[in-house]
Specification:
three-stranded antiparallel beta sheet; mainly alpha; GINS_Psf3; single chain; 7 helices; DNA replication complex GINS protein PSF3; 54% helix
């Protein structure tokens, strides 16, 4: 079998280290080494962990199936439904903490109905956490350089440590925006005196 796949249709993700466990539905001769296997051939029901970019191609070509990864399990979904701010997204996907990016790729691999459910979960989580991200960024910007220091041991610090990489970027942008707004306000008040 020849694997024909247009790489331009592969979704873009920033974290290329993510892997996905596949269960092969088609035997593939001389590909047993894939994902660290030691066999000569991949057989039906063989399980392999492969990089996400390759998993997308294999699943899209209908050579394998996969289960939704642990970072998007029903346990995580329930925790997000109960209190989105309590979930440490950075811990769910490892280095880089790109939970939303990983979820977007999984969403694109899934069938329409499951993909929509994943999209809804990602959107709801983002919306449920965004206000807190912006609020904390503005709070720490108001404290100035001295207030942005080390760990405080409170729930706010735990929340910041659990941010996804996308949320961390928004936090930094909101913090910088609040600092610039404060500076502008202070400079405009000096001119009125």
């Amino acid at each position: 079998m020849n694997l024909v796949f247009n790489l331009e249709s592969t979704p873009q993700i920033s974290n290329q280290t993510q892997k996905l466990q596949l269960t092969f539905t088609t035997p593939i001769p001389e590909m047993g080494h894939l994902g660290g296997g030691s066999e000569n051939d991949l057989t039906i029901n063989a399980k392999r962990q492969v990089p996400l970019w390759l998993a997308f191609a294999i699943v899209y070509s209908e050579y394998a199936d996969f289960n939704i990864p642990t970072p998007f399990s029903s346990k995580v979904r329930n925790a997000l439904r109960a209190e989105p701010r309590s979930v440490r997204l950075s811990n769910l996907v490892g280095a880089g903490g790109l939970w939303y990016g990983f979820g977007k790729v999984i969403m694109e691999i899934l069938a329409d109905e499951q993909g929509k459910e994943m999209s809804d979960m990602l959107t709801t989580a983002f919306k449920g956490r965004l206000v807190e991200v912006i609020d904390q960024a503005q709070h720490f910007a108001a404290l100035g350089p001295a207030g942005g220091g080390g760990p405080t041991g409170d729930s706010a610090q735990a929340f910041r440590e659990g941010l996804d990489a996308t949320e961390r970027e928004l936090f930094i942008l909101a913090q910088e925006s609040a600092r610039r707004m404060k500076k502008w306000y202070e400079e405009s008040e000096k001119g009125k005196r």
